[in-house]
Amino acid sequence: MAVGHSGRVRYIEVGGVRVSVVGLGTWQFGAREWGYGEDYAQREARAIVERALDLGVNLLDTAEMYAFGRSERIVGEAVRGRRDEVLLATKIFPVLPLASIVERRARASLVRLGVEAIDLYQVHWPNPVVPIGTTMEGMRRLLDAGLIRHVGVSNFSLTGWQAAERALGGSVLSNQVAYSLAHRGPERALLPWAQATDHLVIAYSPLAQGLLSGRYDTGHLPRGVARRTNPLFLDDNLERARELVETLQEVARAHDASPAQVALAWLLRRPNVVVIPGASSVAQLEANVAAADLELDDDEDARLTDASDRFHPRRGPGTLPGLAGRLVGR
Asked: Helix, strand, or coil here: 201?
């Protein structure tokens, strides 16, 4: 069961930018590690984007590393003719993010996307060797040239986010981080600062790669390398997550909703937070968007938070969110 959608998605305004509270993550577009297949990449992905735009979703997030640029190309083709409806976000993978390379890689993303400007250009990960100043110098040049409209970061600690903003000499609008009921690290520092300073936290993996959907257990594991190699889906972690998933299911029944919708609605009660779940189908996209209509009360919020507090997964190399968790928790 899932909450039906009553109309267009709602929006918030942060840093002068109007953004849909539910966006669309597109890592899975064309990426073999998700196991969705070629028909999905060639047909369903475009249908998902078109339906998202029909529902008023304006935040579409991709990256140059997703399927080695294919995700950008799929997204670009899907929004052709509807460019003014989209807050188009992509990311540079910072292998050597010197200023000149940042400029060059942005131009390559522009070509793949088929657009004249990127609305939100993000540094995908901090680089521990290259000073953030030279990366932000590249971003500043792109802003001055009108090739990007806003700068963001991803998987940055609070100190790293603040350092990026100082180096840019202007707003680094957003930080895209793993945030869900299964991973609450961003609440320690990132959220309070974002809320106090009119910045945006973009929650990726808001369903912990499907763990919070209630679909998976030791007898039913997700397909695709991206999730099968995630230690969250080890037997003992699935068992540790049982109380949290059962709480989601109980709250979902009270709303005639799905556990995934409840997990998204819990996040959307946090100010300055938007979510970018992926979607394997148009129906899943519609259910994700409808989660913005689900109103939890304070007691339900507290029950979910308490169950989350008691969830302690066994960590391992690649456990969601892996490196992200170590960085954003500082």
From this structure: strand
